[in-house]
Amino acid sequence: MLLIVNPRATTVSGRLKRLVEYALRGRYEVEAVETEARNHATELTRTAVAEGYDLVVAFGGDGTINETVNGLAGSAVPLTILPGGCTNVVCRMLAIPTDIVDATEHLLALADDLTPRAIDLGRVNDRYFVSSAGIGMDADTTRWVDERPRVKAHAGPFFFSVAGAATFGRYLHDAPVLAFEAQGRRAEGVSAVVQNSDPYTYFNDRPIRVCKGTRLDSGELCATVLHSARRRDMPALTWRLLSGRDAESHPQAVGFERLLEAHATALPTREGVERLFPIQVDGDYIGDFEHADFTIHPGSLLVVV
Predict the structure, then answer these.
(1) What is the mean pLDDT of the chain?
(2) How confident is the model at residue 270 (pLDDT cuts 50, 70, 90)?
(3) Residue 121: CB partners within 8 Å, gap ≥ 6?
(4) 14 is in which domain, residue-wise?
(5) Do residues 97 and 144 both lie within one domain?
(6) DSSP code of 16?
(7) Does residue 189 form part of some domain?
(8) In the prediction, which pLDDT does 209 show?
(9) Cα(302)–Cα(230) distance, rounded to whole angstroms?
(10) What is the CATH number of the domain that holds 255?
């Protein structure tokens, strides 16, 4: 087993890492490595594939999982997860316990039967994602949160709500930042979310649904584009999300279902100035881009759950 540990993840500590590693050594031959920089987990995982490991474990949040997945995609080495993040979206989607003690016990129980299952991965440009990718307002919210890791660690899901409201306010008077094209249709907006699974995320244990019509093994993506950010729409949109209804049924949103591919292009400002849009994958901001090409890759990741 290669145990990849993100020491900066929300709930990971040196003491916890040592306890988990000690427990796992009762059933596995474990090599534990801490990540040292962005995308380090991808490098470590590619080495694990080349060296023929039986299992890779991502111990961290959804960003750590995303980096690990990008090293495993298309290989015969399976992934499993130990939760160490704030929300642990992928853990919940795979029905892996979100309590670290329960998750470790669960992984120990799997030692005699490591039977993997295949799930789909989405891809935006050259980056795979498990649960979702977002452009515009969605990605700016993620960036805002990532820039404040200490607050994120202590404030939990309410911090994401504050971040979302702050980002919404910055987009109130902005022109659409992107054009989203799929299935012969085009929609302009301030934000787009593309999902490989449902729900989009969680508020504590409450699922937050943005678009509908996909699963981790459906072989399809779904997407929702928000046309504009208007102050009068925010209460209704927030209530819709928190009540378990999808966002695409909101009057300012348009939904796309059963997607095999899609394309987004950055739009210039009202003054004609060219600009880029931010992109997030699995809750991890990855940079600003002029174009985004989305594709689905069925059965390209093996997981043990």
Answers:
(1) 89
(2) confident
(3) 69, 73, 128, 129, 130, 196, 296, 297, 300, 301
(4) 2-115
(5) no
(6) H
(7) yes
(8) 86
(9) 42
(10) 2.60.200.40
Residues 164 and 86 placed together within one structural domain of the fold: no
Q: What is the DSSP pairing of strand 2-5 with strand 31-34?
A: parallel
Q: How far apart are CA 288 and CA 193, in angstroms?
A: 15
What letter represents residue 247's amino acid?
Answer: A
Whose CA is closest to 48, among 38, 37, 58, 62? 58
CA distances from 199 to 135, 207, 244 (A): 17, 6, 9
- How far apart are alpha carbons 138 and 142 in whole angstroms? 7
Q: Tell me: the pLDDT tens digits for 138-181?
A: 898 888 887 776 665 555 666 666 777 777 777 766 667 899 99
What is the C-alpha separation between 68 and 175, in angstroms, rounded?
36
Instruction: Using the 3D structure, point to which of 115, 137, 153 is the last residue of a domain.
Output: 115
CATH number of the domain where residue 20 is located: 3.40.50.10330
Domain boundary among 68, 90, 115: 115
Q: What is the pLDDT of residue 295?
A: 98
Residue 27 maps to a domain: yes
Segment 48-86, tens digit of pLDDT: 999 999 999 999 999 999 999 999 999 999 999 999 988
- Inside any domain, residue 188: yes
Which H or E run contains 170?
A: helix 157-170
Kindly list the distances between the CA atom of residue 275 and the CA atoms of 115, 220, 269, 270, 288, in Å, as whole numbers in the listed order: 47, 30, 7, 11, 9
Say yes or no to pLDDT of 257 above 60. Answer: yes
Percent of the chain at pLDDT > 90 equals: 67
Q: Measured in whole angstroms, how far is the alpha carbon of residue 119 from the centre of its chain?
A: 15
pLDDT value at 134 more than 60: yes
Is 149 in the same domain as 242?
A: yes
Q: Do strands 206-208 and 201-203 pair parallel, antiparallel, or not at all (unpaired)?
A: antiparallel
Number of domains the chain is built from: 2
